[in-house]
């Protein structure tokens, strides 16, 4: 059975998810890769974060430029471990969900459990398919980073799998 979740995600939604569950996400999510994550952590530490991460999901992606008539270009997931040095700080400051590909460090799994968060896996190589699920996109911070700028996306039925649930169960270890 596929679960449908409206973003931003709630604690109740997260509690009902188990590693391996198939999920369709709809609503608002943020994007960011390593360069953006470094700036986000610096902004949190200085108290100057230019957007709210409380209750939000972030998709690890640097989308290709949009072709004429498209909302966004190909937008497949980035390997998540590159965000591992920053992810615990984001979760400790309100981020509730992450979307990427591949396994996570012990520190990230501990932060997921501590903060009752969730890590979703997206399918690598499916960027063109994912772009069709994006209904709106706008840069909200760090425009100078180009494709790695932080964006706000509105998605509809964005397919993911629960890779690590709020109890620390992980599909990569089963």
Give the N-to-C terminal Cα separation.
Answer: 19 Å
Radius of gyration over C-alpha positions, nearest whole angstrom: 15 Å
Fraction in beta strands: 25-35%
Query: Based on DSSP secondary structure assignment, what is the total number of beta strands?
Result: 7
Helix content: 10-25%
State the strand order across the main sheet. Answer: 2-3-4-5-7
Structural class: alpha/beta
The main pleated sheet reads as: 5 strands, mixed, barrel
The tally of helices reads: 5
Instruction: Based on Cα principal axes, name the global outline.
Output: globular
Query: Could you state the order of secondary-structure elements as H and E?
Result: EHEHEHEHEHEE
Low-confidence stretches: none
Instruction: Name the average pLDDT.
Output: 96
Quick synopsis:
22% of the residues lie in helices and 29% in strands.
Explain how this protein is built.
- The chain is an alpha/beta fold and 174 residues long.
- The chain is built from five helices and seven strands; from the N terminus they run βαβαβαβαβαββ.
- Strands 2-3-4-5-7 form a five-stranded mixed beta barrel.
Name a few traits of the molecule.
globular; 174 residues; 29% strand; alpha/beta; 5 helices; 5-stranded mixed β-barrel; single chain; 7 strands
Secondary-structure topology with pairs:
Layout: E1 2-7, H1 11-15, E2 22-31, H2 34-46, E3 57-59, H3 87-92, E4 97-100, H4 106-115, E5 118-121, H5 127-131, E6 134-141, E7 150-164
Parallel strand pairs: 1-2, 2-3, 3-4, 4-5
Antiparallel strand pairs: 2-7, 5-7, 6-7
């Amino acid at each position: 059975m596929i679960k449908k979740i409206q973003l931003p995600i709630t604690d109740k939604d997260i509690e009902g998810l188990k590693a391996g569950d198939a999920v369709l996400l709809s609503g608002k999510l943020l994007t960011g890769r390593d360069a953006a994550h470094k700036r986000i952590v610096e902004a949190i530490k200085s108290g100057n974060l230019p957007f709210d991460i409380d209750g939000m999901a972030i998709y690890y992606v640097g989308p290709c430029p949009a072709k004429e008539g498209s909302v966004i270009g190909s937008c497949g997931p980035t390997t998540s471990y590159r965000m591992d040095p920053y992810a615990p700080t984001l979760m400790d400051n309100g981020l509730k969900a992450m979307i990427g590909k591949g396994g996570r460090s012990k520190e990230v799994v501990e932060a997921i459990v501590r903060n009752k968060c969730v890590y979703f896996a997206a399918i690598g190589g499916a960027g063109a398919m994912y772009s069709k699920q994006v209904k709106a996109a706008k840069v909200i911070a760090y425009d100078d980073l180009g494709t790695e700028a932080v964006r706000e996306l509105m998605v509809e039925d964005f397919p993911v799998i629960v890779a690590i649930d709020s109890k620390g169960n992980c599909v990569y270890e089963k």
